[in-house]
Specification:
Blueprint (H helix, E strand, L loop, with lengths): L5 H5 L14 E2 L10 H13 L9 H21 L6 E4 L2 H13 L7 E5 L8 H4 L7 E5 L21 E7 L11 H10 L3 E5 L11 H4 L3 E5 L9 E5 L1 H6 L23 H21 L6 H28 L5 E2 L11 E5 L4 H8 L4 E2 L1 E3 L4 H6 L8 E5 L6 H16 L2
Parallel strand pairs: 1-11, 3-4, 3-5, 5-6, 6-7
Antiparallel strand pairs: 2-8, 7-8, 9-10, 10-13, 12-13
Helix pairs in contact: 2-9, 3-9, 3-10, 9-10, 10-13
Length: about 400
């Protein structure tokens, strides 16, 4: 198996040559990744050369529109969906809120939605609010000991009135990778629409949405080495039957109808940089050049293999301690490289104690209050979370373990 060339990868990220960040190990990637050079360059280029209204008949505007169009085309190809099925909005939270509002207009009182208590609130709260408008909200609950979301527990929640099933590809706390294809197949067979929150999975390799069978898949590009945008893939037949959420005269424009806020032209133009980075990694590691979806799949597998190697020593160290609770599975193959632990000290206190060791980590509830509570943890106490990506160095994991060993042993 091809092994990721870490030196090449880190050379693609300006943060690793930034003097202000020298000596710091970044373990807050689940909150937002470093941007790739290809993204930064496109954003800078756009602002410097064609920061004008796009799609007008003069050169700077035509180039601006072409850069935006390239992002739709390149991201769609990597995700293995049609170009007109990709929508860019200001954030995943905003995109989900708009979706919930749009679906409510096509639902009748008494219709049902299924949400989980494993989700980040972005993919749960907007659907739960529909209960105030006459929609029945059913909760698919995690195991309170492990945080596991059992697909079999979904079956009794489905009925002929179920319209939406919203669930995460991976939790931002327990990090278990859910069997998305299996769940989406079950949801489609029931006649409902699957809404998959990929925010905590996509940073670890862009998903093949067609292979997953997801009707709607959402993630945040600022966690996939890009600018602060929300990416939403919606099957065209579903988007066509949803009402227009934008200005009335945009109803016939598929890129606009589900994005009521005006698009951020520069950030959309920069999004193609994610695809350029993915291609750079692919071409450095492979001699041939298949289609975009296959290139993305290969890079996805490279990233996942590297991240599992990084996760194993941290998990092994934590398992050997008797004063912490590791949340989620301890098999690196079953989880994303986002490791949250419960300890007698509050999560934010632990994160603060790691900072003098030049470890950048986070503590709190991470907008997963329902999950934290389901696991029997006080959200105000919170958890410590260390999250990394394929660009994390093994030496940085070793440093994190050494710093944890000192911090966790302090009274």
């Amino acid at each position: 198996m091809t092994t990721l060339d870490l030196d090449f990868v880190r050379a693609q990220f300006p943060a690793f040559t930034e003097p202000a960040l020298a000596g710091w190990a970044f373990f807050e990637n689940a909150g937002g990744s470093y941007p790739a050079r290809q993204v930064v360059d496109r954003l800078s280029y756009f602002y410097g050369r064609c920061k004008v209204q796009p799609y007008a008949p003069y050169p700077a505007s035509e180039e601006a529109g072409a850069m935006m169009d390239e992002s739709y085309a390149r991201i769609a190809a990597m995700l293995n969906v049609a170009e007109d099925e990709v929508h860019f909005g200001p954030s995943t939270s905003q995109n989900t809120y708009v979706l919930a509002h749009a679906f409510r207009a096509r639902m009748a009182d008494g219709d049902e939605v299924v949400v989980t208590n494993q989700d980040h609130e972005a993919n749960s709260g907007a659907w739960r609010r529909l209960a105030d408008t006459g929609i029945v909200v059913r909760e698919w609950k995690v195991d309170p000991e492990t945080g596991h979301l059992n697909p079999d527990d979904l079956d009794p929640l489905l009925s002929d009135k179920t319209r939406i099933v919203a669930f995460p590809h991976a939790s931002n706390i327990v990090a278990e990778i859910n069997p998305v294809a299996q769940i989406c197949k079950k949801v489609r067979q029931s006649g409902a629409v699957s809404v998959v929150d990929g925010v905590s999975y996509a940073p670890h390799g862009l998903p093949d949405i067609a292979a997953l069978g997801a009707d709607i898949y959402l993630f945040s590009s600022y966690k996939t080495y890009g600018p602060h945008q929300g990416v939403m893939a919606v099957r065209r037949e579903i988007a066509d039957r949803l009402p227009n959420e934008s200005h009335w005269f945009n109803a016939a424009h598929i890129r606009k109808k589900l994005v009521p806020a005006g698009p951020d032209h520069a950030q959309i133009a920069a999004l193609a940089g994610i695809a350029h980075y993915t291609d750079a990694v692919h071409d450095h590691h492979f001699a041939d050049r298949p289609g975009a979806a296959e290139r993305a799949r290969r890079v996805h597998d490279l990233f996942r293999a590297q991240e599992q190697r990084l996760t194993a020593p941290l998990i092994d160290y934590l398992k050997a301690r008797n004063d912490v609770r590791v949340l989620g599975p301890t098999d690196p193959a079953r989880r994303a490289p986002t490791v949250a632990i419960a300890h007698a000290r509050p999560g934010e206190d632990l994160a603060r104690a790691l900072a003098p060791h030049r470890i950048m980590a986070g503590g709190g509830d991470f907008y997963a209050v329902r999950l934290i509570e389901a696991l029997g943890i006080d959200p105000d106490h919170g958890v410590l979370r260390l999250s990394f990506l394929h660009y994390t160095a093994p030496s940085e994991v070793e440093r994190a373990i050494a710093a944890l060993d000192r911090v966790l042993s302090e009274t």
